[in-house]
């Protein structure tokens, strides 16, 4: 495999964002695989790939990527919220609720607060 120029990875990342927005998560994943192979420390690329896995209903890979983002950025409210949605879809509501509540505590956006269901047990 030939070494790609760094600019290629930026282009691939931007193209992956566009593919995800155009509802082609599998295409986005393909582009992001090479970006992450070259730059495994790139949290933004991992978060985008996690979102693409989720959109493609690949819940276990999405969960693993969101967890990795949270390990690196424990205060990333969106990553907690998205992990919560992933766990919710995987029929793991108690685990999901924990991440929804962390997301809402970190960023009290209305959608995060609603998902956290603070008034319920």
From TrEMBL:
Family matches, as InterPro entries: TPR-like_helical_dom_sf (IPR011990), TPR_rpt (IPR019734)
Keyword Transmembrane helix found: no
Record field: transmembrane: none
Pfam families cross-referenced by the UniProt entry: TPR_19 (PF14559)
Domain of life from the UniProt record: Bacteria
TPR repeat coordinates: 77-110
Keywords on record: TPR repeat
Protein name in the entry: Tetratricopeptide repeat protein
Lineage start: Bacteria, Bacillati, Actinomycetota, Actinomycetes, Kitasatosporales
């Amino acid at each position: 495999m030939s070494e790609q120029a760094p600019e290629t990875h930026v282009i691939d990342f931007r193209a992956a964002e566009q593919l995800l927005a155009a509802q082609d998560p599998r295409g986005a994943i393909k582009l992001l695989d090479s970006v992450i192979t070259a730059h495994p420390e790139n949290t933004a690329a991992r978060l985008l790939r996690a979102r693409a896995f989720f959109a493609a209903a690949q819940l276990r890979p999405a969960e693993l990527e969101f967890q990795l983002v949270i390990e690196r950025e424990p205060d990333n409210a969106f990553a907690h919220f998205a992990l919560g949605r992933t766990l919710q879809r995987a029929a793991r509501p108690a685990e999901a609720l924990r991440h929804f509540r962390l997301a809402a505590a970190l960023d009290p956006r209305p959608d995060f607060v609603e998902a956290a269901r603070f008034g319920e047990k």
